[in-house]
Amino acid sequence: MTLSWEGEDEDARAARRAAADKAVLEAGRTGDSLTLGNEFSEIRVSRAATRNGLRLLIESTRSGQWVALCPLELEALTWQNTATFAALIGSPFGPLLTEEEA
Which range marks the domain in which residue 60 is found? Predict the structure, then answer.
């Protein structure tokens, strides 16, 4: 018996796209990576050259999740207050806003 779920094909396509996107970023890595960690988390940060300019590739070494941020997205982090980051940490592994809210 094969177990499946509604949206399985869509999830598989999204996973393949994400893996391809990450492979492109990894191929464009420049310089050394920096690893930061404490008792709660560990991340690896590296610079990646893309066809649209440089991105900061941030990877969770424990969960495997990652994000690539452009300079404007990074600057937007400086506009935030501690309540924003508390809200992000309060709902781990998920977006702050759902697709419907965005």
Answer: 22-90
Q: Is residue 30 part of a domain?
A: yes
Radius of gyration over every alpha carbon of the chain, rounded to an integer in angstroms: 16
Q: pLDDT class for 1, splitting at 50, 70, 90? A: low
Q: Which pTM value belongs to this model? A: 0.82
* Cα-based distances in Å from 33 to 23, 46, 56, 57, 72: 16, 5, 10, 9, 21
- Domains: count for the chain: 1
Number of helical (H) and strand (E) elements in the chain, helices listed first:
3, 4
The phi and psi torsions of 98 (rounded to 5 degrees) equal: -80, 170
